[in-house]
Design a protein that fits this description.
Length: 129
């Protein structure tokens, strides 16, 4: 069978109620509890169930999936997954100039004036088009 993604498991838990573990012997290895729990944590009716699976993370993957499959009510659930914001051009310049990580550069931006940023841009200017 084909490799299953966390979204396949979430779809089975939320909508189809198909037991993917019974259908495919290799699905146990494809199941990633962290990602499935994260997907369920976005909704008020499933966040506590996801938390229970986080508390009992030592349980086997098939047991965790069976619990969620049989405990979560059938309902369409969709949300955008939270992603880190991309660094702006100014933050990238600060990262390069000072050798900072993204987090440190974000904090440094609070203290830098527009004059400081212009000076950094001039020093890092590489020419060309």
């Amino acid at each position: 069978m084909s490799k299953k993604s966390p979204f396949d498991f979430l779809n089975a838990i939320n909508m189809t109620k198909a037991n993917l573990m019974a259908e495919d012997d290799f699905a146990v290895k494809d199941y990633t509890p962290f990602m499935v729990n994260r997907g369920l944590s976005y909704f008020h009716d499933t966040v506590l169930l996801a938390n229970e699976m986080n508390r009992f993370s030592e349980l086997d993957n098939d047991i965790q999936f069976s619990f969620l499959l049989n405990s979560v009510t059938k309902r369409k659930r969709f949300s955008k997954w939270h992603k880190k914001d991309a660094a702006t051009d100014d933050v990238k310049l600060v990262m390069e100039y000072y050798g900072y990580s993204n987090e440190k550069a974000q904090k440094a931006m609070e203290f830098l004036t527009p004059k400081n940023l212009e000076m950094i841009k001039e020093k890092l200017y590489k020419g060309g088009r």
